[in-house]
Amino acid sequence: MDYYKMSGIRKATYVGLVVFVLVNISSYINDEKHYAKATLNDAIVQNILANKINQLQQKQIKFCRSNIATLTALLSYACTQAQTNTTSRAACISCFTAATANVLSPTLLSSLLPCATLYFNTGNYAACVTTLQSAVTTNVQVNSTTGCPTGYCTFVQCLRKVQANALVDMCYMNSITGNNLNEAAGRTNHYLLTTSCILAMTRCNPTNPISGAAQNINTTPVYNSLQVSRNGDLRIITVPRSCCGTASGYCLADTTLTQSGWGTIIC
Question: Is the domain of 59 the same as that of 83?
Answer without folding.
Answer: no
